[in-house]
């Protein structure tokens, strides 16, 4: 078998066998297939796609390329949650403590942000002292003893995905549904949870720009999860606007804490309640409506906030910043953008807003780039809000004043003010079980 044969076969739109896909994944992971041939193969897949069988075989081959996390020492139904990436998406910081407060173990490994999307690990590391580089033993012990841990991914967890994703990122082959599904689900299956809830974003700030694309991806991932014996549910959620009002690491931690205190923005609260309810549902805590009530109750009674504080202490973070978020890192410079005319916020381009936050220092353009935990954007107005001329639309925060001007220009181009309020759009656009 030769890599060239597989490239030509997929280039011609033919279906690959399980053995051929395993050969490609193993060969590239071990360095036996060079980047230039792997790039050609990925481009052939990008244009001609893979069917459900091929996608499942690709997922399995990637899953088998490295270590798996054994959670069998933790009693109960372990539940994982994954978001396909968005702007202002701090849901893990809210949802995981809600679910864990009901005795459902949440063992979550998360990534860092890249490009316009933020990463949970970066957000948590804006809490002074918080460690995400937990050993496997420490990770499992924390989940077993307090029901929750959020850590960075280990080096040998699905190494095939690490190599393939890095190549896709520089060859224009990221936005392919089969490649996205295999990437996400190989990591979720390797983490060893019994049930998975997927948050598939759609809109300007997401990889899936349309609801139809998001539904296709969600159905494929749910099929893979259920086919692997994991109870899997997917929600389709809106990412045409940032989630919540804050974009940036410490700013998002602050907003997550406010939400757990019952004071967060309604759009963030709605998505978090629905995600938490579905996680409790797949863990067997009752029908979905009952689980929604349980999720809301965990916020109302502050049990979820207490669980977050418990996790922060266990992972070396300073709990005082959760009790008083003014102690979180704060930027030296602040600028505000005021409306140049009256009207209504008609449109927000979430991707452009994410790029503006990166320019302020809240994100990174390469994996090696350092981030400023205090940088970011606070939106005072969002879609459908009425705006008067001279009224503040957003605040920009940075530790380097020179970053503000360029970010402000991008911010201005990402928000449109029109004469009339636009129709209301729901945050939850679908559910696939």
UniProtKB/TrEMBL annotation:
Q: Does the keyword Glycosyltransferase apply?
A: yes
**Record's Pfam families?**
Glycos_trans_3N, Glycos_transf_3, PYNP_C
Q: Which SMART domains match?
A: PYNP_C
Keywords assigned by UniProt? Glycosyltransferase, Transferase
Q: Which InterPro entries match?
A: Glycosyl_Trfase_fam3, Glycosyl_Trfase_fam3_N_dom, Glycosyl_Trfase_fam3_N_dom_sf, Nuc_phospho_transferase, PYNP-like_C_sf, PYNP_C, Pyrmidine_PPas_bac/euk, Pyrmidine_PPase_CS
GO CC term, one of those recorded: cytosol
Give the catalytic activity.
uridine + phosphate = alpha-D-ribose 1-phosphate + uracil; thymidine + phosphate = 2-deoxy-alpha-D-ribose 1-phosphate + thymine; 2'-deoxyuridine + phosphate = 2-deoxy-alpha-D-ribose 1-phosphate + uracil
Cite a single GO BP annotation: pyrimidine nucleobase metabolic process
EC number(s) on record?
2.4.2.2
Which SUPFAM superfamilies does the record associate with it? Nucleoside phosphorylase/phosphoribosyltransferase catalytic domain, Nucleoside phosphorylase/phosphoribosyltransferase N-terminal domain, Pyrimidine nucleoside phosphorylase C-terminal domain
Q: What GO molecular function annotations does the UniProt record carry, in alphabetical order? A: 1,4-alpha-oligoglucan phosphorylase activity; deoxyuridine phosphorylase activity; thymidine phosphorylase activity; uridine phosphorylase activity
Residue ranges constituting the Pyrimidine nucleoside phosphorylase C-terminal domain according to the UniProt record: 344-418
Question: Assembly state and interactors?
Answer: Homodimer.
Q: Which family does it belong to?
A: Belongs to the thymidine/pyrimidine-nucleoside phosphorylase family.
Q: Could you tell me which PANTHER family the record lists for this protein?
A: THYMIDINE PHOSPHORYLASE (PTHR10515)
- State its role: Catalyzes phosphorolysis of the pyrimidine nucleosides uridine, thymidine and 2'-deoxyuridine with the formation of the corresponding pyrimidine base and ribose-1-phosphate.
Q: What's this protein's name? A: Pyrimidine-nucleoside phosphorylase
Q: Which organism is it from?
A: Thermoclostridium stercorarium (strain ATCC 35414 / DSM 8532 / NCIMB 11754) (Clostridium stercorarium)
Phylogenetic placement of the source organism: Bacteria, Bacillati, Bacillota, Clostridia, Eubacteriales
């Amino acid at each position: 078998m030769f890599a060239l044969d597989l490239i030509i076969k997929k280039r011609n739109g033919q279906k690959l066998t399980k053995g051929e896909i395993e050969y490609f994944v193993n060969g590239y992971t071990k360095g036996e297939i060079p980047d230039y041939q792997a790039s050609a193969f990925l481009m052939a897949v990008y244009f001609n796609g893979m069917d459900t069988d091929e996608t499942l075989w690709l997922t399995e081959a990637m899953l088998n390329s490295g270590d798996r996390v054994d959670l069998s020492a933790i009693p109960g139904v372990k539940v994982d949650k994954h978001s396909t990436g968005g702007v202002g998406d701090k849901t893990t910081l809210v949802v995981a403590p809600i679910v864990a407060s009901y005795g459902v173990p949440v063992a979550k490994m998360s990534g860092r942000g890249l490009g316009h999307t933020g990463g949970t690990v970066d957000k948590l590391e804006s809490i002074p002292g918080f460690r995400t580089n937990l050993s496997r033993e420490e990770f499992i012990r924390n989940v077993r003893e307090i029901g929750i841990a959020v850590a960075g991914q280990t080096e040998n967890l699905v190494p095939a995905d690490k190599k393939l994703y890095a190549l896709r990122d520089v060859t224009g082959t990221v936005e392919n549904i089969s490649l996205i599904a295999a990437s996400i689900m190989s990591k979720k299956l390797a983490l060893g949870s019994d049930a998975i809830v997927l948050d598939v974003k759609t809109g300007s700030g997401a990889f899936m720009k349309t609801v139809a694309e998001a539904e296709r991806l969600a159905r494929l991932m749910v099929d893979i999860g259920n086919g692997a014996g994991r109870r899997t549910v997917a929600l389709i959620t809106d990412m045409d606007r940032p989630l919540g009002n804050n974009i940036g690491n410490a700013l998002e931690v602050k907003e997550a804490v406010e939400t757990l205190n019952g004071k967060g923005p309604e759009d963030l609260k709605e998505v978090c309640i629905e995600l938490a309810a579905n996680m409790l549902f797949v863990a067997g805590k009752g029908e979905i409506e009952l689980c929604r009530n349980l999720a809301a109750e965990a916020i109302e009674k502050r049990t979820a906030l207490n669980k977050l504080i418990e996790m922060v202490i266990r992972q070396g973070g300073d709990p005082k910043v959760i009790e008083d978020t003014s102690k979180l890192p704060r930027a030296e410079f602040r600028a505000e953008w005021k409306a140049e005319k009256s009207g209504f916020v008609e449109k927000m381009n979430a991707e452009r807003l994410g790029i503006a936050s990166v320019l302020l220092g809240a994100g990174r353009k390469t994996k090696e780039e350092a981030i400023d935990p205090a940088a970011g954007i606070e939106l005072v107005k969002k879609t459908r809000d009425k705006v008067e001329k001279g009224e503040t639309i957003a605040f920009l925060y940075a530790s380097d004043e020179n970053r503000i001007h360029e970010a402000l220009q991008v911010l201005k181009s990402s928000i449109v003010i029109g004469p009339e309020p636009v129709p209301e759009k729901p945050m939850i656009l679908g559910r696939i079980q």
